[in-house]
Amino acid sequence: MRFLSSFLIGFLFFSFLFSGHAQSVIGDSYALQSMERVQDWFSAKRYHRVQETVAPLTTNSDALIAEQALYLQLMSAVYLSQKNAVDLVDQFVQRFPSSIYATDIYFRLAGDYFNKGQYAAALPWFARVIPSQISSKDLMTYYFSYGYSLFAVKDYKGALPLLSKVATDKTWGSQANYYLGYISYVGGDYALAKDVFTSSGPDKSQNQNGYFLADIYFKEGDFSKALETALDYLPLSSVKERSELNKIIGEAYFNLEKYELAIPYLEAYKGQRRRWSAEDFYQLGYSFYATQEYEKAQSYFNKITEGKDALSQNAYYYLGASYLKNHQKSAATNAFKQASVLAFDKDIAKDAALQYAKLSYEQGNPFEAIGEVLGDFIREYPQDPQTTQLKNLLLHAFLLEKNYQGALDLVAKMPDLANSAQQQDLALRAALEAMDREAYSKAANYLSYILKIDQQTDVAAQAYFWQAEVNMRAYDYPRALESLQKLEPHYKLLPKRLQQLRHYQKAYAFFKTKAYDKAVVEFRQFESIAQGGESLSFEYQETLVRLADAYYSMGDFKNALIYYNRTLNEVPKLKAYAAFNGAMAMGLMGLLDQKIERLKGFERISVSPRYYPKALLELGMAYAAQDEPSLAIESFDKLISLFPTSAEVPDAMLKKGLLFYNQSKSEEALAVFKQMGKAYKNSDAFSQARVSAKRIYLELDQVQAYRNWLAALDIPLPDNEELDQESYEQLQLKNAMAPLPEKIRRLETYLEDFPNGLHFVEITYDLATSYREAAQYKKALPLFEALVKMASPNAEAALMALVTIKLEQQLGGDPTEDLKKLRSMAQDPSHYTFALSNLMKLSYENKQFSDLVSYANEVLALEEVATPIRLDAQIMLARAAQAQGDSAKAMAAYSKLKEQASGALGAESLYWMAFYTQKSEDYTASNALVQELARDYAPYKEWAAKGLLLMAENFYAMEDLFQAHFIWQNMIDNFSQFPALVAQAKDRLAATQQDAQTPNSDEDEAL
Known about the structure:
The chain is mainly α. It is built from 55 helices and no strands.
């Protein structure tokens, strides 16, 4: 801005006056001539020539010449913009402090800075000017220039009186009034500003009056006038003004509720420094909401993530409403939650809390228990008409989350929520859930609670039934029978299936208490009910074999054989067991030929190491009973060669040796007994073999050889066998009913007295088992290890106990080799499955994935495997595929598992399905799986927390910043028990917590 073209003309006028005065007083002709030339050069603007000539004159003895020379030198430096101009001014003032030209110098120097647009630099010089020493012609220029400089540096208070002095000036008045109007506008005096802006402007081509007027009308709330003015001025506006005008127009339409018209202008606004405020996002979001474009509304509302004010509360509320319109109930839940905790608008807070409670009930809530959410609303708004409805939902909310204890606690606080029958139902659900978790003591407490309320209801009848089941799972069969007896008068209140099963329960309890005659009656009754029905197929199959066992135990071998044969034909998984025991029944009935025929064909039924060795042993014994020793020995040898690690081998060798002895083949017999001494010297069979070997040595008159043999085996001479046997019999008698500590003491004493006694193996097993029962695992462990090495009849049971202690108590080192040994020698199907499943788990822990897959597939191939173990195998296959980076195989495995698994495995399956779905960039489907995880597996908090991290990333990928931030923040607030997951949430929140840019930012048009 250059308003001071008169500065130079004014200066020449002053120079001419000064020159005339000098000529009248200077007598030195040389100095006078020099000054005349300098004056001419200065007038001709040859400032360099002035400086070259005038320097000697500045030290002239004549003070007036020196003053004039220094003045011309100074002004030349000013007009040449030389850096030393200010220094020359200081020199001039110091030498001529009372010079009448000082004010003129300050005025000209300030004017030079002003003309260059250096307003801040001009201000100190304007401040030194004494207005009374300036000519009237230049005084208005001084006031305007000084005032505008202050205006330019936004010192409106200082500018106001100076510009006011020239408001009526012909030259500067129009411009001064414009700036006075702007000062009024900035100061909020809109009435005065409007008067100024509606009159005239300094330059019609650069007239900003329209912009300021539009803004003033808007700020005064006259939105119609603001619209009219802004729309008229918009075509004339600059780039910088255009963005703000769009804001004025858009917001004016918004305030007039013309939302469709507001949208394009609100979108065209560039924001302050290319960023929109929360209010900007809200206005566009609400405009789209009002015009039913809910997805677009969401996209703007969800940028408001940090607000704690009334605007933010509104934004969160309408964001929730937008989600609801788009059927995104889970997302709506979070938005209403955020609106409900802000109290700026009480009505919005209450309605948001109501929506939050209802949606939590419908959709589930990963952050808070549904019951607590409903309860919070009821407590906060007890008189609200909706409270009654929520009370009705409250109890059911606890049931949805399977929080039965919470429901019972709630009923205790609010008894009107449930009558006694409903309380019994709650307790029954809690008991059954506790049984699923194998928390039998808790289940028993819930069942007792039911019976305390009322013993005559249908729920009470079920409580008696499940009380019996709990007792049976705890192996307390007498108490189980007591519960079933109490059930009997009420059994018709049971569901039909439980009515039928009660016969099976009673029969099983009678069987386990050896009341076989009563067991038979109940089993037969259950058989007649369950035959042909699929729902009771497992119990029916068990009934067949238990009836056979009961008849067998009663000595009714005929009926036992009937049911063993039925089991053989109808229950494939028990074919080997039924075939073997059926053969035993035949033998006991005197049908030795039939027994032999069945055992001869046993390999067609099964060659499993669980029963085939027993069958070969019994076959050999049957041949021996028929006086066919060669066939008997052939069977024994077959057993020994096929199953060298079987527990039946010592017995087979004993029988073989005795057969040789009975045939007077003493040397052959002695060879077998010596072989037993090397391999099985601690077995019960060898104790018997040793007696026969002694007779042979005595018959051969080789007493010393007998002693040498025992010495080589490190076995003391059995000179106290009678005392040993008597001690053993007394021990068995006294320990039959003795408490556990006393029993342990007697067993320890026996082994101290007879360290190589006749019953060493049996007593060692009893002592190890007693130690384990008394939780003295460190004492039990070495005994079980010794028993495994002895190859005793209890070797398998000992090995099972050994690996169980190692796994459960973390004692004795790595159990892997023991588990492999158990797998190879197990005859009990449950032991075999136990070994396989634990080998599978250890392989996973040790990252031996090929072994894991092999073991898992072997488990899945088993016919007789419990569902939990089968599910364990499937989860291991899924984890192995995941660990090896095979996403497709892992996803397939988890998908298959999801259809069958429950509890922790179900939660794990859903999480990983959501994880792999996210990797395929199907974020909506991934979120649906996480929501299912949060709803159906609420008790499994860690999986829920991991799922929420996935959900937050899904929302972030979908540019829903509100949902992502909400989830991360709520994880920080609610999952402190998982610090690693909380740390991830904090990191992601910090990394994304910044103001959103405007969607249409353009750096070329940045303000």
